[in-house]
Amino acid sequence: MTTAHELFAEGMREHFAPALRAMGLSGWRHSFSLPDETHWALLGVELGSVDDHAVRYTVNLSLTAKTAWAGRSLRPNPNAPTGLELWQARIGDLLPVGEEIWWTVSPGPRWLVAVEDSVAAVRHYGLPELLRRLSTAIDTGAETYLSPRELDDVNSALATAAVARIQRAELADKALVLTGAWSRADRVAEEVLRGVAGGFLSADDDRFREVRCSDTLGRELWVFGGAGEPLAAFPES
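^ thats the sequence. predicted structure below, dont judge the formating
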């Protein structure tokens, strides 16, 4: 009997990869990319549990500036975030369900349905968002403000307060944009980041007048100006 692993390999080789190449991505097996001179726009297939009876997998997407990745011999792995990404997400975050999703390939007459469903998710949700993020990154030309290593001290303070670390600090449109795995409902994160914003603003850097905090999907959460005072409030979603 054909095992789930064999069917999964066939599905990736004969269906998933050709479909992604037809969409304009290049690559094979578990890693694909959009052609671009300035950014790594990537899609990866991440395996979960694997045995003869079932193979579970999901899809991850990421966008990384090539300048941030300079000096490394291999391209980024969308399945292994490093903190240098401009954006990253699991495809479930982009689907209407808005939550993690895994497909399962199992032996049987309908084993290909999962593969076809994952291709449709990439075509209708994953790829359009990756293209949008790539276009935005090119248009805005966001500049890195502090490297992950330079953020170590402030991230240590955030860890002490049980607040997720700052993944990226970038300059765009006269604002310092901080990105992290925060939620608008997390009032502790909001208060701690207000203090962090006040620290950044106290440096009187002419390159930015406000600090914007966004989650890892690029959704704006809080905007602080002056000494960390809020400039805008966003409704609960």
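The helical segments are 4-22, 112-140, 152-160, 187-201.
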